[in-house]
Amino acid sequence: MAVIALPKYVTKVMKGLESAGFGAYLVGGCVRDMIMGKRPHDWDVCTDALPHEVMALFPKARPTGLKHGTVTVSLGEGHVEVTTFRTDGEYADHRRPDTVSFISDINEDLRRRDFTVNAIALSLSGEVIDPFDGRKDIADRIIRCVGNPRERFQEDALRMFRALRFSACLGFAVHEATYSAIFEMSHLAAFLAAERIREELEKTLLSPNPHILGQVIEAGLMDSYLAGSGGAVPELKGFGRLPKNNEQRWAAFCAILERGGLISSSEAFLRQLRLSGSEIRNCGEGASLALNNPPADSLGWKRLLADKGVEIAMCTAAAADVLYSSGSLNVLREVLNSGECFSLKQLAVTGDDLLALGFSGIELGETLRLLLDYVIRFPEENERERLLNLATGMERSHIY
Ligand code: ATP
Ligand code: MG
To answer: Hey, whose CA ends up nearest to atom 7 of ligand 1?
Structure first.
C-alpha cells in the first residue's frame, strides 16, 4: 500500500479508542483511496465501541447518525466519522435498514458494505482486514457487490446508482453479475428519494467518465424521470471535455436528453430531481437557448451576456458544445477575457449620470439599454464623454 501519512487528528481518534481497549479501523473510501495511492478526502473509522462510549471518550463528539451508530469526532483541524460495527436488519423501504444491531465482529460489519473495494479495513498498526478480496478488485479495477448483487440491490436500491457512480469516478468496470443485476433490479429505483438520486447523478456527471450516465439510462434507473425514449440512449461523448462545473454539465445533459426526446422540459426534469431554484433557472434556460437559439458569434454571446448574465451564458455555451461541438465555451471565454463591456455595471456612464442630465423613469432605463447595446457593438466607444454626448441627443441617432 502506498504510504500516505494520516492526519494527526485521525491518528489521535484511533489511538484514543485503542488505548481505551477498543478496536479502531479505517474503512471504506479512505482505505480504497490509500490503496490506490490517492489522498482520501474524508476519514471513516469503525470500532466496537458503542456510540455512547465514543461520546464519553471525546468530549467534542457529536451524534450525527446515532440510529446507525455514527458519531462525528472533531479534533482541531478536522473531523472523523466513527461508526460502531453493525449489521443491518430488514430493509422494508429498499433504502434504509429498519433496525441495526451493534456487534463486535468487524468481518460482519464489512459484510453489510456495498462493494468489495469499499469493504476493506486498516488498523493503525497496518493490519488489513479484507474478507472479500477488495484489494484484488482494486488491482483489477472492478466494482463488485459484496455478496449476492440482486439481494444487495433489493435491500438498498441506491447501491445501483453507487455502482455506476464509482465506476465513473474511479474508471473501474462493473463486474458482470453486478452489472446484470442492475438491469434486473432497476425498477426499485422508483422507491428512492429524488435528492439521493440527484446526488449520485451529479457525482457521475462531474466524474472523468460522465458518459456512464448512458448506462444509468440504459439500465432503466431513470425511468421514473424520463419520458419514453424508444429505447434510444443518447450519445454522451463530448461531456468529458466540459469544465467540472455542475451547472454547465447539468445544462448539457438536459440539452442532450431534450434533443433525444427523453424529456420534454429541462426545467421540469431538474425540478423533479430537486435541484435548487437558481440551478433550475440557469441550466434550464441554458439548455433551451442552446437547443433553440444559440449565439453564432462573439457579438451574439455579448448580447446573451447582457440579457441573461454570465451563469446562463456559460450553461448555454456548455450545452451548445455538447450538442454541436461548436467551440462555444472558447468563444465565450474570449469575450469574458477581452474586458469588453456587456453589462450596465461596465458601462462608462451610470444611471446617476443620466439623472444629472435630466433623464428619469422609463426613458432613463431605455437610454441606458440603448447605450449598452451600442457599446456591445462598438466596444471602443465605451467612454464617458462619448456616451454622454450620445445620450443628450447631440448624436442620438447613432445609438439606434
Ligand atoms: P467517497 O469517495 O464518494 O466518499 P466512500 O466509499 O467513502 O466514497 P461514502 O458514501 O462516503 O463512500 O460511504 C462510506 C462507506 O460506507 C462506503 O465505502 C461503504 O463501505 C459504506 N456505504 C456507504 N453507503 C452504502 C450503502 N448504500 N450500502 C452499503 N454500504 C455503504
Ligand atoms: Mg466517503
So the answer is: 29
- Render pLDDT for 295-346 as a digit per residue (tens, 0 to 9): 999 999 999 999 999 999 999 999 999 999 999 999 999 999 998 999 999 9
Closest CA to 285 of 302, 270, 300, 263: 270
- Express each pLDDT in 102-154 by its tens digit: 999 999 999 999 999 999 999 999 999 999 999 999 999 999 999 999 999 99
> What is the Å distance from ligand 2's center to 41 Cα?
7
14-62 residue pLDDT tens = 999 999 999 999 999 999 999 999 999 999 999 999 999 999 999 889 9
Ligand 1 binding pocket includes 44 (Cβ within 6 Å): yes
User: Ligand 2 centre and the CA of 29: distance in Å?
Assistant: 5
Which of 300, 293, 352 lies closest to 323, judged by CA? 293
Task: Please state the atom number of ligand 1 nearest to the C-alpha of residue 155.
Answer: 28
Query: Strand 78-84 relative to strand 44-47: parallel, antiparallel, unpaired?
Result: parallel
Gap between the Cα atoms of 225 and 268, Å rounded: 10
Name the residue of 26, 35, 44 whose CB sits within 8 Å of the most ligand 1 atoms, as the mutation to test its pocket: 44
Ligand 1 atom index nearest CA of 44: 14
- pTM exceeding 0.90: yes
> Are the beta carbons of 305 and 299 closer than 8 angstroms?
no
pLDDT band, very low/low/confident/very high, at 4 (cuts 50, 70, 90): confident
Q: Is the CB of 118 under 6 A from ligand 1?
A: yes
Strand order in the sheet with 44-47: 61-65, 70-75, 78-84, 44-47, 24-27, 121-123, 128-129
Q: Answer whether 203's CB lies under 8 Å from 213's CB.
A: no
Return the C-alpha cell found at 254: 438536459
* 253 vs 318: CA distance, rounded Å: 10
Pairing status of strand 121-123 against strand 128-129: antiparallel
